Amino acid sequence: MVEVTARALNRPFTYGIPPELQGGVQVGSTVEVPFGPRRLVGFVLEILHDPGAEALSHHLRPLLRVLDPTPFWGQDLLGLADWMRRFYGCTWLESLQSAVPGPVLRRARAARAATRRSRTRSLPPAEPVAAYPEIAPNRAQELALEAIREARAVGGTVLLHGVTGSGKTEVYLRAVQEVLEEGRQAVVLVPELALTPQAVERYRGRLGGTVGVLHSGLPDLERREQWWSLRRGDLNVALGTRSAVFAPLERPGLFVVDEEHETSYKQEGAPRYHARQVAFQRAAQVGAGVVLGSATPSLESYHLARQGRFRLIELPGRPGGRPLPSVRIVDMRAHLRRGRLLSPDLGEALRDRIAQDEQVVLLLNRRGFASFLQCQECGFVPTCPECSISLTWHRARGLVRCHYCLHQEPPPEVCPGCQGSRFRTGGAGTERLEAEVQELVPGVPVVRMDSDTTSGAGAHRRLLERFGSGQARVLVGTRMIAKGLDFPSVTLVGVVRADAELHMPDFRAAERTFQLLAQVAGRAGRGERPGEVLLQAMDPEHPCLLAAATHDYKAMFHSEMAIRKEALYPPFCRLVRVLLTHPDPDRAEAEAIRIGRSLSAHLRQARVVGPAPCPVERLRGRHRWHLLLKGPKVQELMDGVRNYLRPPEGPDFHVFADPDPQSLM
Ligand code: ADP
Ligand code: ZN
Fold first, then answer.
1. Is 137 a pocket residue for ligand 1 (Cβ < 6 Å)?
2. Among 10-24, 179-193, 276-290, 435-449, whose mean pLDDT is lowest?
């Protein structure tokens, strides 16, 4: 007998194994099963040998055939999927499917007999990679490596805290080498690979042909090939984004989570897993070590390290004593009336650096020419008819657009409020910033990177190459440019609105702002010449900006921890967010209130906050309400939700629970 879970089903079912298939079925095999009048593709979860149930077996319907005998999952990944479905409150299938890349699964389903062919077809030979030479570790790096060895021996975790450029990657590379020398394997997670081709080059350049790369930006064929090579053990290091935490390695000895604070490690749809959490779980199952690295660790991780639950290793500076860039805060209140994005200070610094043939990065976390149109007479701002947010003005397209649902329309000619016809552009985006730069340094080539200019295949790479090769002198962009770029001749970084996100309705707003500023500041002065950073802000005395200006993570940590403790937020508790949506505002509200009452009555250990409308009250035509559950253990909160959240009756309700939510919008 086998227990099988199939697509479209939420629980396992039991089937018999017909004699001709005996021996050909393993845990993890893909099989075809009868289900009512239909045939479904399923995955084998367990082979049951219980003789007591044997008597039943002739009532069981038999498997029809084995589509792919090679199991997708070893016992350990099945165990992990089982844990995940309970911890994150998702179905078996959601859990299993998140562990295998879509192209691998689709292939298996379409498989029938064709599977073999696909797997033997090989890719064109990989382009040669430049060797990335060995560097003798310094003392801090030696200490880190020693701590990682100890952590591996006991299944522990090391938190590596070091500013950008302090040599963390060098530590990961060596630690991975040591694991490989012992005959074990490693998983290295990075938040983003499409934007950081340099990362792949470094790992392949040092570790050679044993590195497999897994991320959704790869073409299907290549993704399948890499996945199966890891599965077969031809490759021993899995380098990839979030879902690479499920890389099908048999003997993982080390999990590296680089930039562990990044929100991209959290999956937004079900299962709502966090790759860092899954790495802990998987490492514990197989007896592996975990290394978390960051210049700006999440408050949660740093707190655990200070409590002694993780080993904290600090890399104090950049190798060779290269100084961190000097950071200056520009008070924008004085310049409000000029109606320009660039203050005179930043404008001057820009001209200066260009005159000296250096490069400049300017960050503005917003796209479009201006963020909204506003009636000059009555202040009316066009908003999305489906979502409760202002529409963004895109000058190049001559349209206003919603950045949540992509609704677009021509700009209003006449104000629906007052019949006025004069509109001004409020806020401003990267497009206008680019125009201002061109005014200041005419004829100097500028590259703009935001989701408008990078939507085409390979666009990121092309734009980055234009800047990296020195062809363009100025790089203008949204937060996507803050990630991982390493261009030695960048000596000036300007952040146009450093405090833009400080007042977002999210308890992590200050932490996120600090992280972004520290990261983007790390782009300056990576080469010989010292770097400079200018932060423009309306609130120049905010503790978070002052901490960023002095590169003082601990100052930010302590000031934020005081607030979190006071208001009871992580790391002083765990959260589960319950989100409910419905097209009708009254029904959404009424059900949210009902659910809130019932959870408050039953969850004695938890504190229930809300319900309240979400900051984004309406999205794609649905009204959104949420509740926050606070308690010491996520599992307890999720058990409470499972036991006491009775789903609303009636069609069109969506309700889900998000454990350890990373977004409260
Ligand atoms: P991080 O990952 O913390 O940003 P990297 O590992 O990328 O830092 O190191 C930053 C730069 O310093 C790289 O160019 C790297 O080659 C160099 N580097 C790292 N460790 C050393 C060392 N021990 N001695 C000299 N240079 C080093
Ligand atoms: Zn919309």
1. yes
2. 10-24
